[in-house]
């Protein structure tokens, strides 16, 4: 933790200093101690990172693909409830995947199936099943946030559960990495969702690993340093249908990744090199066509798998 | 500072799981963590204690996964940040209650009673005008004095993202604060 006073904006810093937090309430510490006595401290062991594996993967492309497919953790656990199926109201699936491997009975048969099973589980409050559908890296990260991966799923009910009842949901799968051992895929959900009585247009992307004959979601594989992908310019969000000019360039920032996989709508995915700051400006030749667009960006490496999606319109 | 040491395999030792040691550690960091949470909550004191309770309980549950060679303060910062963002997601449809800005105040910095009340409201209102992501980088860099790289590590995004959020957030904050803070 390195304080760097020179980085501070003096006006903002002075203002923030004026907003000192109140002291804890008189019962705060005794109440907390009571709560902590009821909680078993985490006993999970921290595992070192994978620097050697990462270095090897950078040198050998084939090794990179293999590591990216597998993730850093163990083989995925079986799904708790194999009889549960997905509900797919007016869902259309566009897929570039040609994976023909046989999956065990009761397992999701595709990346899209895995994602739909996951949102179904979150919608139903079946946190055990939702957690079981996570790949090991994401399960580990989720457990670090809330004690157990299952406990963390509770916080996702509101965000992802409404996809189950979306009246116009579409599902698109993009294969990012593929080999004889498996694949890394990005599943994009797009449509209208109702959240607490408010209707939103939304796009969400969920990375999925297919490895060892099973599909598992990998939404939280940020790695030690990778961070997330951000669409920083123009100021867009996955919600809504913001308009941009047809000749706009969309700046995407990812960290410590030499290239991004980018896909605009149903066009063929492309591999885009990033600059030293991890930035890439996407501007299709001739500009964007009028209408609605969905732009997907995915970064996959030996220590991370992250993805982001943006939805916008062009007049 | 209470040190939490890993064994050779990187596993936190059992004495670090002791409730008394953990309590000492969080009390040591509480003031700064509380300041971060208060800023992320845009000065909403009514939710502050609950968020801090949640943060500390989450930290205790995750203690076994703590990297012992990492800084305990940074680890707690990240957990507190996550707890605040969870709370903001849960409450994102609720308006920010500016009237609950707390009564307590840093007396050493207070220029006068009337100006003090105006300033608190102004700052809380300016923070509420930011997105939670922007609020986080402002709180970490301009509030706590972390460098951009450290803030990026806590928030879990690229340094370029922190810089762009910081630029937008500062412009919004300065505009919202108005003449009295120029």
Output mean pLDDT of chain A. 75
Helices and strands of chain B, in order, run as HHHHHHH
> Considering DSSP H and I runs of 4 or more, what fraction of the residues of chain B is helical?
55-70%
Number of strands of chain B: 0
Total of DSSP H or I helical runs spanning 4+ residues of chain B: 7
Termini separation of chain A (Å)? 47 Å
Radius of gyration of chain B: 17 Å
Gap from first CA to last CA of chain B: 37 Å
Structural class of chain A: alpha+beta
The number of helical segments of chain A is 9
- Mean pLDDT of chain B, as a whole number? 72
Helix and strand succession of chain A? HHHHEHHHHHEEEEEEEEEEEE
Largest interface: A-B, 69 and 88 residues
Low-pLDDT segments of chain B = 1-16, 93-118
Number of DSSP-assigned strands of chain A: 13
Descriptive notes:
- The complex is a heterodimer of chains A (315) and B (182).
- Chain A has 315 residues and is α+β, with helices and mostly antiparallel strands.
- Chain A contains 9 helices and 13 strands.
- A 5-stranded mixed sheet of chain A has the order 1-2-3-4-5. In chain A, strands 7-13-12-9-10 form a 5-stranded mixed sheet.
- Chain B is mainly alpha-helical.
- Chain B has 7 helices and no strands.
- The longest helix of chain B has 22 residues, at 19-40.
- Chain B is globular and about 50 Å long.
- Chain B starts with 18 loop residues before the first helix and ends in a 5-residue tail after the last helix.
- Mean pLDDT of chain B is 72; it is low at 1-16 and 93-118.
- Chains A and B meet through helix 1, helix 2, helix 7 and strand 6 of A and helix 1, helix 2, helix 3, helix 4 and helix 5 of B.
């Amino acid at each position: 933790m390195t304080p760097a006073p020179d980085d501070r904006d003096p006006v903002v810093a002075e203002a923030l200093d004026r907003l000192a937090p109140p002291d804890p309430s008189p019962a705060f510490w005794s109440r907390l101690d009571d709560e902590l006595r009821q909680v078993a401290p985490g006993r999970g062991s921290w595992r070192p990172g994978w620097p050697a594996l990462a270095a090897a993967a950078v040198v050998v492309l084939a090794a990179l693909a293999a590591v990216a497919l597998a993730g850093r953790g163990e083989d995925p656990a079986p799904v708790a409830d194999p009889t549960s199926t997905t509900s797919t109201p007016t869902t259309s699936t566009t897929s570039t995947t040609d994976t023909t491997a046989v999956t065990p009975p009761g397992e999701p048969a595709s990346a899209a199936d895995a994602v739909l099973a996951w949102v179904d589980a979150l919608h139903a409050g079946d946190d055990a099943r939702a957690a079981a559908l996570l790949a090991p890296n994401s399960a580990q990260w989720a457990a670090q946030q809330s004690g157990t991966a299952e406990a963390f799923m509770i916080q996702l009910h509101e965000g992802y559960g409404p996809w189950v009842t979306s009246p116009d949901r579409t599902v698109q799968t993009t294969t990012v990495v593929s080999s004889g051992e498996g694949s890394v895929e990005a599943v994009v959900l797009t449509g209208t969702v109702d959240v607490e009585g408010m209707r939103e247009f939304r796009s969400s992307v969920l990375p999925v690993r297919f490895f060892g004959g099973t599909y598992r979601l990998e939404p939280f594989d940020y790695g030690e340093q990778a961070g997330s992908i951000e669409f920083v310019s123009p100021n867009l969000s996955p919600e809504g249908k913001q308009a941009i000019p047809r000749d706009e360039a969309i700046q995407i920032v990812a960290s410590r990744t030499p290239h991004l996989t980018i896909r605009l709508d149903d066009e063929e995915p492309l591999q885009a090199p990033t600059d030293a700051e991890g930035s890439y400006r996407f501007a299709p030749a001739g500009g964007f066509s009028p209408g609605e667009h969905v732009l997907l960006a995915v970064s996959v490496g030996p220590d991370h798998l992250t993805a982001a999606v943006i939805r916008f319109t062009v007049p | 500072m209470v040190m939490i040491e890993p064994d050779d395999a990187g596993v936190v030792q059992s004495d670090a799981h002791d409730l008394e040691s953990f309590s000492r550690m969080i009390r040591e960091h509480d003031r700064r963590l509380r300041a971060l949470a208060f800023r992320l909550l845009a000065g909403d004191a009514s939710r502050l204690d609950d968020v801090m309770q949640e943060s500390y309980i989450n930290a205790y549950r995750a203690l076994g996964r703590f990297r012992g060679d990492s800084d305990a303060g940074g680890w707690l910062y990240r957990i507190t940040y996550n707890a605040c963002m969870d709370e903001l997601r849960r409450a994102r449809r609720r308006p920010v209650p500016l009237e609950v800005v707390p009564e307590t105040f840093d007396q050493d910095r207070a220029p006068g009673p009337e100006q003090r009340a105006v300033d608190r409201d102004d700052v809380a209102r300016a923070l509420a005008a930011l997105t939670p992501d922007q609020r986080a980088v402002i709180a970490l860099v301009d509030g706590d004095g972390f460098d951009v790289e450290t803030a990026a590590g806590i928030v879990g995004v690229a340094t370029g993202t922190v810089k762009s959020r910081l630029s937008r957030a500062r412009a919004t904050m300065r505009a919202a604060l108005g003449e009295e803070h120029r």
